[in-house]
Amino acid sequence: MKALVYHGIGQKHWEEKALPQIIEPTDAVVRIIKTTICGTDLHILKGDVPAVEKGRILGHEGIGIVESIGKSVRNINVGDKVIISCITVCGSCSYCKRQLYSHCNDGGWILGHKIDGTQAEQVRIPHADNSLHRLPEGINEEAALMLSDILPTGLEIGVINGKVQPGQTIALIGAGPVGLSALLASQFYSPAHIIMIDTDDNRLHVAQQFGANTIINPARQNVVETIKELTDGLGVDVAIECVGIPATFKICQDIITAGGYIANVGVHGKSVELHLEELWIKNITITTGLVNTSSTPMLLKSVQSGKISPEKLVTHRYPLSEIETAYEVFGNASQEKALKIVLTAE
Ligand SMILES: [Zn+2]
Ligand SMILES: [Zn+2]
């Protein structure tokens, strides 16, 4: 089969690899229908994730058809159309028993990281019963693909960790695919006012279409002053950080109201300043996390009923064999006006 293989910092190649095989009785092998590229894949290529070894097939998002199953797999059958969760779940370790699947002792985020991933014609999925979700008949495949990672991430690590409530004023910092996913998911909880902050006008425009009430571009506007005016000087109830740089984490600290929540979603490559000299008195909560994907079954129902339409995040489509071109486009996301790129196997 063909797969996208990591060959060290800045190097990847679409090349021939051996077909994956069942190794453990709990494994399944899935033939990919659609996959996509994540910002995390770009971090890997920059060398930010040293656990990824040369020769590793990248990718942790996908939908596909089950090709074969190990003899202990019970809930998934050959021929099932499934979402591949970015998080592998054994279901029985102490973390899994607390639904902290991202820290599973025999799973967590391993696809395209510690084991071969989904940017390939086929992929081996460990603990298939818990790590695959069968797709309902007739569901939009591109919407389902967004449930592998980004929509559960925006919901669980942004909206649920940030305890978004009806009537609140919330700010999302970063209108990339995960920030926009958090924007979509926040609307389950009916905040009164959603503010999106980003330096990219195209992404701000998309955020408006997705339901943001106010957009702020820090290149032209003073974020703190603008938010003070909007909130009678109080600040926002929830600030969801979806970028992962010191400047955006600073904005969260500057705009949060007393008793508020700062939910960090962004992947940080270096340390940030924590202004406890300002915040010690403000009764705020700061949360961090890696997605558990425990919300995926609920999100599937919401997609099926039309409550949420994450396929709106898809801006570009390519055949899977043109994945190297797709990486170039995704790497220039701002100029290309790219959010999620769908790669479809021929
Ligand atoms: Zn991802
Ligand atoms: Zn586990």
TrEMBL record:
PROSITE patterns linked to this entry:
ADH_ZINC (PS00059)
Q: Where are the transmembrane segments?
A: none
Query: A Pfam family matched by this chain, by name?
Result: ADH_zinc_N
InterPro entries, alphabetically?
A: ADH-like_C, ADH-like_N, ADH_Zn_CS, GroES-like_sf, NAD(P)-bd_dom_sf
Annotated keywords: Metal-binding, Oxidoreductase, Zinc
Single annotated GO MF: oxidoreductase activity
Q: Where is the Alcohol dehydrogenase-like N-terminal domain?
A: 25-136
Source organism, top-level taxon? Bacteria
Q: Which family does it belong to?
A: Belongs to the zinc-containing alcohol dehydrogenase family.
Alphabetized PANTHER family for the sequence: NADP-DEPENDENT ISOPROPANOL DEHYDROGENASE (PTHR42813:SF4), ZINC-TYPE ALCOHOL DEHYDROGENASE-LIKE (PTHR42813)
The name of this protein is Alcohol dehydrogenase
Which species does this protein come from?
Xenorhabdus mauleonii
Its taxonomic path starts at: Bacteria, Pseudomonadati, Pseudomonadota, Gammaproteobacteria, Enterobacterales
